[in-house]
Structure formats: C-alpha cells, structure tokens
Amino acid sequence: MPFEVPGESFPGSAFYYLEETPLLVDVAGWDAPVGVIGVAARASATEDAEPPLAAPPLRISGSDRDHARAQQCMAQAIYYEAASESDAGQRAVAQIVLNRVAHPSYPRTVCGVVYQGSERSTGCQFTFTCDGALARTPSRSGWARASRHAREALSGLVYAPVGTATHYHTLAVNPYWASSLQSVGVIGAHIFYRWPGAAGRPAAFSAGYAGGEPSAARARSSVPAAPLPNDIPVVAPLPDLPDGRTPAAPSPPAAGTQAAPAAEIMPQSGDVREEYANSGRWITRP
C-alpha cells in the first residue's frame, strides 16, 4: 500500500492510519439526558405548538449499594412487567419507574417506587410484587436483556414516547382509574397515562433522587408498636413483716400445665378381655 515504506512499517502499522482521532469528552451539560429515544409525546396530537411532554432525566447517585439495589429493582420491574415485550415496551416500563421517582407523589427511590404497597395482598403499584410472581425464576437471556435496559435507564437515557406518564395497564384490562387520567398512547401490550393538568406537566417532576435504596424485596406488614414505659403496669411493693424481714417473693407460675394422668387421656380399648388373658402363652398340660 502507498503508506508502506520499506524499513518504516511493521505488522499492524495500518491500524495507526485507519484509526480516527479520539474525541475529548465534553463535560458541559452533564445533567442532560445521555440519549433520547423516539418522539416525545404531546398533550394533544392536533396542537403542534404544544411543547413535548417529557420528564427530566434521572441519574442515580449514592453509594455502591444504592446503585446495585436500584439496578436490581429496575431489572425486576422490566422483566416481570414486560419480559415478552419489545425493546420499546421494556424501555417504556423503565421510564414509568423513573417518572415516578421524579414526581413528588411517589417515593424518591427506585426500589421504593417498585415495591410501593407490596406489604398488601392487593393494591400494590406493580402487580408482580404482591401476586407471587417473584417466586418464578427468570430466564438467563430474559434477565440479561432486562438488566441492559435497566442500566440504560439509570444512566440517564430517556424514552421520550412515554412522556410524563406515571401509569399503565395491559390492553386486556380496564381499571377504574383509567378514566381519571389522560392517555399518552399505546406501546406494545400496554397503554400509558399521565396525570391531568399541572400534575402531569414536566415542571411537576421536580423531586430529586433521595438515595438510601431499600432492599429489593417485598415490604413487610407493619407490626404493633411496643408499649410505652408509662403503659407498663406497676407492681405493688411487698408489705414489711413486723420483725423487719422482707417476705419472699412468690414463686413464678410454672411454664406449662401439669400433664394429665395417662389413665385419663388414654382410651380404654386397650384392656385385655378375660377370655384372652392367656393369649400368647405356651399351652400346658391340663
């Protein structure tokens, strides 16, 4: 080749001519989305002047444990809600989780959003957290795909077609709350909704990520609080004897009740009848 000069080239030198000049990373706009996929949803299809509705990108900050737990919860939501969906369908579910984290009406952590209401048998925000679906082991390929989309979403990728939607349901059902929200559109097997009015505008998504991710597991039901010190009954002091001695405290009651005699609890059918009293003995001469 023209650039190969005897004595000045070596095996592999062609790569130095073919490699493009590396570009420096521009740190300006670090809080902007790393990428926007699709066309942003609009409030009305007939109003071209209406600005696109898209929630701001969310970047997970915090400890390594926060990152690991957020990744786990996001991958679970994507897999158990949209395992059979296309890439668009899985990204849409991930964007719903991010939109809720950014909205002040929901928890400010990824796992908090995904497992909200999971302590109840019904009424959980994501059905898979309370219907026993987590007992099903995910497939290796399906989990890898869901994890990839989870990493993209948590690194700042925005799936614009979802816009500011915070709700969705499958096309097979018609929940009671659907009529109170504004439809954004259908993606895959799900239809997506946003809050009406100011609550569904991008400016409403102002809550920042709080960190301190809870564990990626079903929340436990609340237990009764321990009694306050003032509620503990006070034991009256023991009276003093005339000679100044202190009476001995009564012995504590036995931990269990005394067992009833065997004759009282055993059936009487085991008694040997008189005609069979010698059964099993050697026969003797009369």
From TrEMBL:
Keywords: Hydrolase. Residues 234-286 are annotated as: Disordered. InterPro entries: Cell_wall_hydrolase_SleB (IPR011105), SleB_dom1 (IPR042047). One of its GO terms (molecular function) is hydrolase activity. Residues 84-193 form the Cell wall hydrolase SleB domain. It comes from the Bacteria. Residues 254-263 have a biased composition (Low complexity). This is Cell wall hydrolase. The lineage of its organism: Bacteria, Pseudomonadati, Pseudomonadota, Alphaproteobacteria, Sphingomonadales.
